[in-house]
Amino acid sequence: MSQGKAGKVALLAFFAAIIAAFFIFDLGTYLTLGNLKARQSDLATLLDNRPVAVIGGFFLLYVATTALSLPGAAILTLAAGAILGLWLGTLIVSFASAIGASLAFLSSRYVLRDWVKARFGKRVAAIDRGVANDGIPYLLTLRLIPAFPFFLINLGMGLTTMRLATFYIVSQIGMLPGTFVFVNAGTQLAAIDSTSDILSPALIGSFVLLGLFPLIAKSIIGLVKRRRIYRKYRRPRRFDRNLVVIGAGAGGLVTAYIAAAVRAKVTLVESGEMGGDCLNTGCVPSKALIRSARLVHEMRHAAECGLAAAQPEVDFRAVMARVRGVIATIAPADSVERYTALGVDVRLGHARIIDPWTVEITDRDGGTQRLTTRSIVIAAGAEPFVPDIPGLAEAGFLTSDTMWDALEARGAVPRRLTIVGGGPIGTELAQAFARLGSAVTQIEAGPRILPNEDEEVSGFIADILRTEGVDVRTGHEAVRCEGQSLIVKHGRGETAIAFDEIIVAVGRKARLSGYGLEDLGIENGKTLVVDETLKTLYPNIFAVGDVAGPYQFTHFAAHQAWYAAVNALFGGLRTFRADYTVIPWTTFTDPEVAHVGHTVATATAADIAHEIVRYDLGHLDRAVADGVNKGFVTVLVPPGKDKILGVTIVAAHAGELLAEFVLAMKHGLGLNKILGTIHSYPTMAEANKYAAGEWKKANQPERLLKWVERYHRWRLK
Length: 717
Ligand SMILES: Cc1cc2nc3c(=O)[nH]c(=O)nc-3n(C[C@H](O)[C@H](O)[C@H](O)COP(=O)(O)OP(=O)(O)OC[C@H]3O[C@@H](n4cnc5c(N)ncnc54)[C@H](O)[C@@H]3O)c2cc1C
Fold this sequence. Notes:
The chain is α/β, with parallel strands linked by helices. The chain has 25 helices and 20 strands. Helix 3 (about 50-65) runs antiparallel to helix 4 and helix 12 packs across helix 13. It is globular. The two termini are about 40 Å apart. The protein binds flavin-adenine dinucleotide. Flavin-adenine dinucleotide binds near residues 248, 269, 380 and 545.
C-alpha cells in the first residue's frame, strides 16, 4: 500500500473510531436540550470561576464536533447563547463552526476526492466547472438556509476544487444569520422545548428568501454586466439576419451549414478562398504531397516486396499538379454554389464587425454593405507565426501559407531545404520533402520533435526521419539568417546551415486583428477568449476553430461549430457546453502517430493514477504481411480498472485505427468491450483487440483461475 493510501486509511479509521465511540458510549445524551437546561446554572458558575478554560474548552469542543460531523452542533450553539450571551456566543460559534467545517472539508478532500474523481471522473469534471463558475453563490445559498445539513455541505464541497480560503470565508459569512438566530434562542433557553421551536415555518421562509438572494443577485449582476457591455451600442429594431458567419474554413462552413439546415437566415463571408486553410494550404495539399512522397519511398524500397528497386525521377511540377487536382476535386464540397444551394447567403469579401449586431462586408470590387444580425460567429482561423529572426525576411522564407504557390512556381524540389519547427506540420513536411529528394534539415529548439506526444513517440519518429536522411536537430535554436544560411545555436556553439529554401513552421497564431475585435474590446490572449458555450464577452458573438482554440484541427473546428451554431440560434431556450474530453489527434508521418485522451505525460502531470497497456506491432499478421510491423499501441487505464484514459498509436493508418478507441472513450466503453468485438483477420485494426488482450492478461482473476485449475484436475479423475 502506498504511503498516501495508508495515511488515508489511518485517518478514515480514526474518524470511524471516534464516531463509533460517540454512539457506543451514548455521548449524544449529553448534547440534549434537557441536559443543557439542567446544567445551565452549573455551567454559568463554572464560567464565572474559570472563564478562559470554559470558553477555550467550549471552542475546542465545538470545532471537534463539527470537524467530525457528529450530531449536536445545534445544541452547542444554543449552549453558547445560554452560557456566553448573544454577542460573545455568536463570535465564538461563528469562528468555531467555520473552522470545524473547514476541517471536515479538508478531511473529505484528502480521504475521498481521488477516489470519487477516479470513479465518477466525467461528472466530477462537470461539477468542478460549475463550482469554478458559480461555486460562491451556491455555497452562500446553502449556508444561508440552515435547513440544509451542515455536515453534508462540508463533506460535499470538499470533493470539489473550491479553494479552502473561499470555502472558509463564504461559510463563515453565510452561516452568520443562522448562528445569530440560534445563539439568540439560547439566551432564552427556558422558553424552548425543542430545537424545532427555533425554526418556525415563518423563520425558515425568511432564511429561504435570504438564501435565494445570492442567486438572484448573481442573475442581476449578469444582466447589469450585459447591459454595460452593450451600453455604447444601439440595438437594431429588426435584424436582417439570424446569423452572420465570418470565415468559410472548416469552422465557418459547418456553422453556416447547421444554421441553414434549421432554416435560419444566415450569411457566410469569406475574404480568401472558400474552404479556408485546410482545403487550400493545410490538410489537403499536405496530405496529397505526402501521398506522392510515400510512393517514391515505396518504389525505392520495392526490393522489400521482391520487386526491383526503382529510383523514380520526381517530376515536381506533376506532383504539384496532382496536389492542385486533389484540392480541385474536394473544392466543390466547400463551394459558393453548394452552400448557396443549401440556403446560405455566401458573400466573397472582407467582413468587419461594426457593433455587436452589425457586420460590414467589403466585396472584392470594393463595394460595401452593412447587415444587421442577431448573432455573429467568428471563424477567422489562424495564420503561421513567424518568429523575429534577423535576416529571415531577406532570405525569402516560406510558410505553410506561401510554400505551395512559391514551390510550384520554382518547378523543382528544393535541393537543400531547412524546416524550422518540430511540431506536426514541420515533421510531416520534413519527411515528405526528404522522400521527394530534398536534403532536409529540421530545426527544433526544444529537446524533441512532436512535443505533444510522449517522449518514446518523439524518439521513435525522429529515428525514422533520421534513417530516411532528415538531419533532425533538436535543442537547436534558430538565431539569425546570414544570406542563404541559417545560424543555429546549440549549447554554446553556433552552426551555419546552408539552404536553398527555408520553411518556417513554428506554430500558428489566431487571426485577431483587422475585423473589428479591437474596437469591441473583445478579450484575447493567444486566441479569442470564449466560454464553454463558445460565447465571447458579448453574449451574441461566438467564436470557433483556430481563432478560438485550444486545438487547431479541422475536426475540432467542426465540433465547436455545432455548439456555436446551436447556441447562437437557440441560446435563449437552451445552451450547450462544448465537451473537449475526447479529441483525437493525428500526425500524418509514416508511420502515423495518433492519440486520444491522455498521454503518459499529461496523465502524470494531472496526477492521474494510471498503468500502461502496450501492444507491439512486431507480430501483428497484417503488419508483417505489409512490411509495416514497426510501431505500437499504448492504452492508459486506471490501475486495475477497465476504463480507457488515453490511447496512443504509432502505426501505418494509426489515424484510422484510433477511431475505435475514440468511439469507446466517447461512450464509456472499456477494453473488455473491444476484446469482445470481432475484428476482421488479417487487419491492422486487430492491433486494438490485441492491446485489449494484453490488458486482460495482466488483469486475470488469479484466485478464480486456481479454483478452475483444481476443478479440471478433479475432472481428470
Ligand atoms: C500545413 C497544415 C496541415 C494541416 N493538417 C491538418 C490535418 O491533417 N488535420 C487537421 O485536422 N488539421 C490540419 N491542419 C489544421 C487545419 O487546417 C485548421 O485547424 C483548420 O483549417 C481550422 O479551420 P478554421 O475554420 O478555424 O480556420 P480556417 O480554415 O483558417 O478558415 C478561416 C477563414 O476565415 C477567413 N477570414 C478571416 N478573416 C476574415 C474576415 N475578416 N472576413 C472574411 N473572411 C475572413 C480566412 O480567409 C479563412 O479562409 C493543418 C494546417 C496546416 C497549416
